[in-house]
Amino acid sequence: MAIATVNPATGETLKTFDPLNAGEIEDHLVRAEQAFQEHRTTTFGYRSERLLAAADLLEADLDSISRTMTTEMGKPLAQARAEAKKCVKTMRWYAHHAEELLADEHPDPADVTDSGAARAVVRYRPLGTVLAVMPWNFPLWQVVRFAAPALMAGNTGLLKHASNVPQTALYIEELFRRAGFAEGCFQTLLIGARAVEDILRDPRIAAATLTGSEPAGRSVASIAGDEVKKTVLELGGSDPYVVLPSADLDKAASVAVTARVQNNGQSCIAAKRFIVHTDVYDDFAARFTERMSALTVGDPMDEHTDVGPLASEQGRSDLEELVDDAVHRGATALCGGRRPPEHPAGWFYEPTVLSGIDPAMRIHHEEAFGPVASLYRVADLDEAVTVANDSPFGLSSNAWTRDPDEQARLARDLQAGGVFFNGMTASHPGLPFGGAKRSGYGRELSGHGIKEFCNMTTLWYGPES
Ligand code: NAP
């Protein structure tokens, strides 16, 4: 894929970039390794000062970087601003919490004396340079939620960002440099996906984190496995959104719209499969469809736009194929199901609600990465759980019920990295984020995320120490 900024609202190529050559990649690796040897010895206070400076700089740049994101991948401008604000908050969160999260642990001496130790300490040390392969859909957030904890832990980072967000990728490198992190602590590599393998195999790379599609995750994980390097994978999702009779139906329908179409429907944790109890199905379907039909599709720079274009022409074709396959096999489009005729340029697609989904349809098992919702009618809680779990993915899940017994059952049985009750899935710096099944493994954010790229070291002190 060419490394270029192509405006998805118009299809116009605005800027192209040459990928780095082998010599330039080598220079980046040398700088990353040198920077790690220095950075790993710095104090939490030193790192925190710089991360807080990065947060302040990003806050000052909020408007311009939001416009860059919207130009490169088409999310509505207000959502780009919200994304940048969340990055500021997360940088500050890790700047304030990392030292405490990675503090030495002191096992009770009574528990370890039979190992011969007078005492023992568990210390979290950095691993080295981490290669981050990132997607375009939250072009700032995906990187910051890796970079903030990685830098605070004393690691250095190399970013291979998606080829369609090069200006955002370069901005992030510059941001950390301006904030005072030493040369080489965080670098952007403008490279295509094919260049990843050699870099990942390089001994100067300690570990990798990938957020993206399942094929990309499988490829990076198998190379890293071959090299015995740690990976974290955040892959696709097709999150269930279960609605049961005790729910506040109007609220459930209203939140369902946001949960499905935020980021133009291109969010891994978007609710994609709406599984509704038969007693409230017709009511929910009517309210949800009415709201989906009323959304304003258009220029993402316009403050009144709810849904902008898909990020790429290929992404729209993939989505169209899923919808066409479902309709061909008997699903009904309650709204949408086509390109909006009033937006012939750019890669727009109408918010769409499909009913009558069955397991023979591709959309039942595949991720719909765009503003397309699948509706399921279920007879009871058992069937809701069965349908919710009938997916290769297990990223997050949503459940609307005010019944504590139903909540307990869903908390126990939904196969996902999160269960959000009476609300929609959202990431937060203080809560672990990640998936089960083919949605990946490992966790980002919170104390769990920062420890993923640490060498948990046992320090054992004999009686003479
Ligand atoms: P993608 O094609 O997998 O791209 C993601 C990144 O991986 C890009 O930097 C891409 O580079 C690179 N890449 C692609 N194939 C690769 C390979 N074989 N080896 C190494 N790198 C490779 O994914 P996408 O379509 O851009 O993003 C959408 C997907 O990401 C969806 O499935 C979505 O659910 C998932 N996602 C998951 C999360 C989460 O937290 N779980 C968050 C956001 C998105 P190029 O751009 O150069 O191809």
From TrEMBL:
Gene3D superfamilies, per database record: Aldehyde Dehydrogenase, Chain A, domain 1, Aldehyde Dehydrogenase, Chain A, domain 2
Domain of life: Bacteria
Any one GO molecular-function label of the UniProt entry: aldehyde dehydrogenase [NAD(P)+] activity
UniProt keyword annotation of Lipid metabolism present: no
Alphabetically ordered keywords of this record: NADP, Oxidoreductase
Domain Aldehyde dehydrogenase: 3-458
Alphabetical list of InterPro entries matching this protein: Ald_DH/histidinol_DH, Ald_DH_C, Ald_DH_CS_CYS, Ald_DH_N, Aldehyde_DH_dom, ALDH_GabD1-like, GABD/Sad-like
NCBIfam families tied to this protein: PRK09406.1
Record family assignment: Belongs to the aldehyde dehydrogenase family.
Annotated protein name in UniProt: NADP-dependent succinic semialdehyde dehydrogenase
Naturally occurring in which organism (per UniProt): Streptomyces gilvosporeus
Lineage: Bacteria, Bacillati, Actinomycetota, Actinomycetes, Kitasatosporales
